[in-house]
Amino acid sequence: MNLPAATALFILLAAAPSAHAIDIPFRWTPGQIEVQVSVNGRAPIWFIVDTGAEYSILDTEVAKSYGLSGGRFVDGVMLTIGPVTLRDQRVMLIQLDNFRRQKRAIRGLVGYDFFARYVVTFDFEQHLLHLTEPKAFKPPRDATRLRLQFAGRLSVIDTVLTIANRRIPAKLEIDTGASQAVILRHPFVESHGLVDVAASTSTADSVASGPLAFVKLPTQQIEVAQWKFENPNVSFYGVARGAGGSTDTDGLIGNDILRHFRVTVDYSRREMWLTRMP
């Protein structure tokens, strides 16, 4: 069917995503945010949307099947997430055996460069990612602003933990790839003399290091801006190696806390906006 040029242009514009605002549905496991991503135009596969990933990550076996190689990183990769295409991406290759052990179809992580490109809002109620061009972004009227700090490519906020009746400031990495409430680094716990407060030990999978030991740390409260969460589920790395031994941040804050908010991260302005959900 031949359409007049003006009509065809109208249909094309109506079908195209807005240059200023884009919504992408996500799957909530619950605990983690999953979207389908096409790598270099291939059929979409499942990725986790992860502010705690310094680079986007692709499973090494998948990368090999796509003809991608080059050591730890591959450059020039195209990632398509819904109507959004990120070109010339540097992608880290990691064997994601932890998801295979869990019998989950996750084959990658969407990391830092996605958040550097857009202002991203996590709507945990509607299971949507709202993307906005940084120049067009206007903060929600009912939201509270937090200052974002950066440890390399990791975004960090100030919090306060109450442990053993002591209020302890903690710089926590925003980690939407973590289902837990808070995980603290071993050096931080040790420096505050909290190892003896520890309770039970459990094992959980990590992306890069496989199964790791985590020690439960009874915590009375965590303060995030003006909000207080009583008896949050807090643990710490059982050993001071790898991520557990890092001193770049004191720990991470994950989705067991973040899901109580509508969360907006604006890397361009180093800001985070929180709206408390009912």
Question: How would you summarize the topology of this molecule?
Answer:
Layout: H1 5-15, E1 21-25, E2 27-28, E3 33-39, E4 45-49, E5 56-59, H2 60-65, E6 73-81, E7 84-94, H3 97-101, E8 106-110, H4 112-117, E9 119-123, E10 128-132, E11 144-147, E12 149-151, E13 154-163, E14 166-174, E15 182-184, H5 186-191, E16 201-206, E17 210-216, E18 221-224, E19 227-230, E20 234-237, E21 251-253, H6 255-258, E22 261-266, E23 271-276
* H and E string: HEEEEEHEEHEHEEEEEEEHEEEEEEHEE
Q: Average pLDDT, to the nearest integer? A: 91
Helical segment count: 6
Fraction of helical residues: 10-25%
Determine the CATH topology of the largest domain: Cathepsin D, subunit A, domain 1
The low-pLDDT segments are 1-18
Tertiary shape: globular
Whole-number tally of structural domains: 2
- What is the structural class? mainly beta
Let me know the largest β-sheet: 10 strands, mixed
The total of beta strands comes to: 23
> How large is the radius of gyration?
20 Å
Distance between the ends: 51 Å
- CATH top level of the largest domain is Mainly Beta
Q: Could you tell me the strand content as a percent range?
A: over 45%
CATH H level, superfamily name of the largest domain: Acid Proteases
CATH architecture of the largest domain: Beta Barrel
